[in-house]
Amino acid sequence: MAAAPVWSVDPRTGKRREQVAVEATPGEVGRTVAAAHAARAALADRATRAAFLRTAADLLEGAEGPLVEAADAETALGPVRLGGELARTRFQLRAFADVVDEGAYLGVAIDHPDESTTPPTPDLRRYRIPLGVVAVYGASNFPFAFSVPGGDTASALAAGCPVVVKAHPDHPATSELVAKVLRRAAAEHGVPQAVVGLVHGFDAGLELIRHPLVAAAGFTGSVRGGRALFDAAAARPVPIPFHGELGSLNPVVVTEAAAAERAEQIGTGLAGSMTLGVGQFCVKPGLVLAPEGADGDRLVKSLTDAVSDTEPGVLLDHRMRDDFVTGVAARAGLTDVSAPVTPGAGGVHTVAAGFLTVPAARLAAEGPHDLLLEECFGPVTVVARYASPQEITAVLSRLPGNLTATVQLSAEEAAGAGRGAELLAELTPLAGRVLVNGWPTGVAVAPAQHHGGPYPATTSTATSVGGTAIGRWLRPVVYQSTPQALLPPELHDANPLGLPRRYDGRLEH
Amino acid sequence: MAAAPVWSVDPRTGKRREQVAVEATPGEVGRTVAAAHAARAALADRATRAAFLRTAADLLEGAEGPLVEAADAETALGPVRLGGELARTRFQLRAFADVVDEGAYLGVAIDHPDESTTPPTPDLRRYRIPLGVVAVYGASNFPFAFSVPGGDTASALAAGCPVVVKAHPDHPATSELVAKVLRRAAAEHGVPQAVVGLVHGFDAGLELIRHPLVAAAGFTGSVRGGRALFDAAAARPVPIPFHGELGSLNPVVVTEAAAAERAEQIGTGLAGSMTLGVGQFCVKPGLVLAPEGADGDRLVKSLTDAVSDTEPGVLLDHRMRDDFVTGVAARAGLTDVSAPVTPGAGGVHTVAAGFLTVPAARLAAEGPHDLLLEECFGPVTVVARYASPQEITAVLSRLPGNLTATVQLSAEEAAGAGRGAELLAELTPLAGRVLVNGWPTGVAVAPAQHHGGPYPATTSTATSVGGTAIGRWLRPVVYQSTPQALLPPELHDANPLGLPRRYDGRLEH
């Protein structure tokens, strides 16, 4: 049987651009994983890894022109957005190099023998070591920042783990180009190119998660795809950690006082956030609880105006376009649902942004309207009009886990008056990031960041963005009664590497 | 149908002592979980939790007499061991209270707005919050330290999570008594007694892991039982973290130089470790790689003498006794396996300690001897005699994950000469705790401790012993652009609680 070709497709026309590769056979997946595994020792040195990551950032900068061009041709995301995403990707690679240099992520802890504890404590020295080969599943909507050179890859390499990336079929040419750049960066530091493996094909993705030498996986994508891989990871003879970001509704609550104070500003802000990148962000606000009455009407009016002004856009591929058109039609057809601006097919290859409204009471109990509580990828949101604070609580109690939850408060509420604190307490159990008077689109790469949330937002309690994302690819090991001569320098009493650590129970840095 | 009775059984006679309870119906499990969930707010205050844990330790101390008596009657572990285990349990409760007081476990991180990053950073403030109700599955072999008042319960309560414990059928009376003590401690601090739920019964255990309000689980037990619960946790509509400690062979490598230097000491030490607690420790050394030749013979001779002197002992229950007798017979019947001291039935209710020897070459490739690479619970170990360092490597490469791995080195090797470092590097991928010139039995409760290891030792990368065990029951949440008036004090700039934190990227304490 001939190998299945992998095509790069132009979503602006639906036409094939070029054949990029062929789908990997099980044998090829196995060889790629084995080569990555065999190369892992080259990533053992922290300084080498940090230098490799920085060189990768530099080389991506040098290759920006062709990379953005290829990505735009395959994703239609536009050169401005893609240039920004590539800059973010470089920043992220460098940020993980800094994390490696600092070394707090190693979690070094040293206890000296202590007869006063129950039971007595021997000499114990712990730090965290890399798990092994990490399988990375690239996302459709971020050809750079959540794909081959993205956060999963950067954090895994930072941890000392080789990666094998399963390229997303929406940008195979970009994936190939970027993998070459990363491998060139590896080679510059004497690291085998096999530490960045790349495979194409749906079956190859399943083969990858089942491979005995794959030690963990990172995923960004749909609930259906992510759950299938999560299930495969859990069903292995030796189960492995599966850190998947699957789907999120990202609820927004607008208080009556906030609507009274700045209905127009909120309506316009919401329009910007929900249509950004043609609504193809995992943190797009997909459900907005806004008050009934005149202030809520003003909000809806300004949302209507702003969304009506939005140009039709091209989604990442035609299957997504079909799903969007079908999905919004099914939602719009529900009882009591209106479409002030009708979302749907905007042309042969484009879609038009829009939004739906529904009485919040329709979402307060199980029924056909539960469809409105499921993520719909693309430029659409649902505004649920509530008649009372009890309705807000009722709807929130029915939501699955989310990446983000947002509340729009008045100035007085933000200062502590009224229901602000109470609403924050209601939103916190729903999400991993809670925002006040902001919009969830835009995820900063920062030490305090957390990009994750209760299932199905993520399949673990970890983050995929920010410094702590490195922890996904590590496991602790403790050495007991081990002579200093045999210990790695990280665990020497003298702390020759100057690492932050817990020393006889006390934090030191 | 009448509720199934739960009996306390005396393993010294196999006779029922008393009916302790009845197995929980699905409805009872549901009510217990719901009550625990409803009580969770009472655990929100850190100072209350720390005080509760310390009072629990105090009350367990006060109740030592009846607790040890009940536990001994059900487990035959003996009052000395059980008194020590209860002391360890109290120490552990107090240690987690200290962890709560210190607050480093919250992982507080604060980033102020920064326009210089790509993308720009808004105000971000992260800490870790409790997951919710934790299901705890008590272990057979530790009626205190890994059961109702054990590390899973202590760390979950410390994290702010109510627990529902599934009592182990080997000590239901002890479980009931201890639960009452913990509830009395809760009541002393105004915490609803429902934060410590207790259910009995196999089906109740499955019901528990599937309950929608159960947010995570801790387990210590067999590979078969643990894997079934792990699978159930992963198959839920909303999967939950399952931190299970399942099984471990705990390999020991004795170098030729070590055997030459102190064969007798190693043989005697091994006998003590493998027969401790009638071989019923998860860290019992179950496979020992010892050299062929005269020095190895001396080791085997001293092991033979010491194990021969060991009195028959009572296992925790008669099913375990049957499994032990069957298991050692199957192993002893393999080609080339000898039994210098025959393990097996030592009397009607007891078992006799013993050990087997086998040429290491028999373990170097797949075959019937793989049975020797599976844990056999009870007082037996396997000494594999190797002819070359290559045989050590070959056998180690075939081992599943372990809690511990040990190497016995000569004084010169321990000082850095010879193969010491190399062997340590070979053992590290196999285990979560690596020991030099010690024995794996005895697990200190210390900040640097790690009690866990690659599957099947544990089903996650977490520890079940030591301060970091609290992290299993927490998830991060970050507040973005949230006014200080609405933030918890943990996230205020002024740090009113004096918490260790990462502030604008820098570690502070």
TrEMBL record, chains A, B:
Q: What is its EC number?
A: 1.2.1.26
**What reaction does this catalyse?**
2,5-dioxopentanoate + NADP(+) + H2O = 2-oxoglutarate + NADPH + 2 H(+); 2,5-dioxopentanoate + NAD(+) + H2O = 2-oxoglutarate + NADH + 2 H(+)
Kindly report, in one word, the top-level EC class recorded for this enzyme. Answer: oxidoreductase
- Which residues does the annotated region (Disordered) include? 487-509
Q: A Pfam family matched by this chain, by name?
A: Aldedh
Instruction: Please report the organism this UniProt entry assigns to the protein.
Output: Streptomyces spectabilis
Lineage top rank: taxon: Bacteria
Q: Name the InterPro entries on file.
A: Ald_DH/histidinol_DH (IPR016161), Ald_DH_C (IPR016163), Ald_DH_N (IPR016162), Aldehyde_DH_dom (IPR015590), Aldehyde_DH_Superfamily (IPR050740), ALDH_KGSADH (IPR044151)
Q: Where are the transmembrane segments?
A: none
Protein name per Swiss-Prot or TrEMBL = 2,5-dioxovalerate dehydrogenase
Task: Tell me the SUPFAM superfamilies matching this sequence.
Answer: ALDH-like (SSF53720)
User: Which residue numbers delimit the Aldehyde dehydrogenase domain?
Assistant: 8-446
An MF annotation (GO) of this entry:
2,5-dioxovalerate dehydrogenase (NADP+) activity
Q: Which keywords appear in this protein's UniProt record, sorted alphabetically?
A: Oxidoreductase
